[in-house]
Structure formats: C-alpha cells, structure tokens
C-alpha cells in the first residue's frame, strides 16, 4: 500500500491530510484530529458493553502522551514520557488536579497499569465518585476519560486559531505521516 493511501482516520488519508495542510484548512484538520482520537481511543472504550476502569485509564495514558506530543510538536516521546505527563498535567484542563511534583500519577497509575496491569501504592481505579480523591486514593476512570475527551476537543478547536499550536500540530503530523512509510530493512 502506498503511504498516501494510508488512513489516518475513517475519513482522512495521508494524501488528503497533506492536501488540506497545504491549503491551510485548519477547520477540517481540527475535525480530523478530534475524529482520530474519538475513533481510535474514546469510542471503543465508551461504547463497550464491558467497560472497565483500568482499560479506560490505560487508553487515557496513551492519549495523554500522544496529545502532549501534539501540543509540543514532538515526533516521538521516547525517553521523555514522565516529562510529557508533567507537562500535560500543568496545562489548564480539568485534569490539572493530577499535577504533582512527585509524579505519583506517572509511577503509580501510568507505569503501574501499562507495565504491570495494576495500580500501585494503594491507588484504586473506580467508575464512580469524584474525579480524584487523594485521601481515599481513588480515581474515577469514567470522569477522567470524559475530561480527557473534552481536552482533545479543546485542543482541536485551539489549532484553528493559535498559530504556535498549529505549527506544532504540523510538526507532529509530519512525523505521523512519515511513520506511514515502511523503514527499509525492518519488518
């Protein structure tokens, strides 16, 4: 398959993306990026009849790192995951309450779930209650995912008007498109 035909979302190929980017069609590309996150992450979790808080938080962690790489225009987050979470939680979003200097969310939730399939250090993942209860060491995964979904929508809207974010979006998307081309010598 030619890389230009590779689908980036159900309605966007690499070739179509490049045409819209060249035309500076920020509105269409904002719709695309929101659609990409919806289709790949949010809808499969939210629409599942067997929802699970751990799966919701695992997906949320993937989204946080990817979304922060869009904010920063980074091609890759290799060796900078912890900093990506710090930077994301410092942003003015409903998830700012998770910002901390000891990186507990990164270690106890992100690394715990993604590497060991468990929350660590006494944290519990629920699907009810408040978004964050530090005293009870609970996180409401449903509220977390929904707040993250709103954050993605706000980001998509922001790239239509903010020139700096638009430029960083373009840098990240250049890397996304480049990743659609097979590397020589790797299978």
Number of strands: 5
What is the average of the pLDDT values? 94
- Low-pLDDT parts are none
| String of helices and strands | EEHHHHHEEEHH
Please estimate the helix content.
55-70%
Strand order of the largest sheet: 3-5-4
Q: Find the structural class using helix and strand composition.
A: mainly alpha
Query: With helices defined by DSSP (H or I, 4 residues minimum), what is the helix count?
Result: 7
Query: What sort of overall outline do the alpha carbons produce when their principal axes are compared?
Result: globular
Q: From the alpha-carbon coordinates, what is the Rg to the nearest angstrom?
A: 17 Å
Main β sheet profile:
3 strands, mixed
What are the SSEs and their pairings?
Elements: E1 7-9, E2 12-13, H1 14-22, H2 26-46, H3 53-72, H4 81-90, H5 104-116, E3 124-126, E4 132-133, E5 138-140, H6 141-158, H7 163-178
Parallel strand pairs: 3-5
Antiparallel strand pairs: 1-2, 4-5
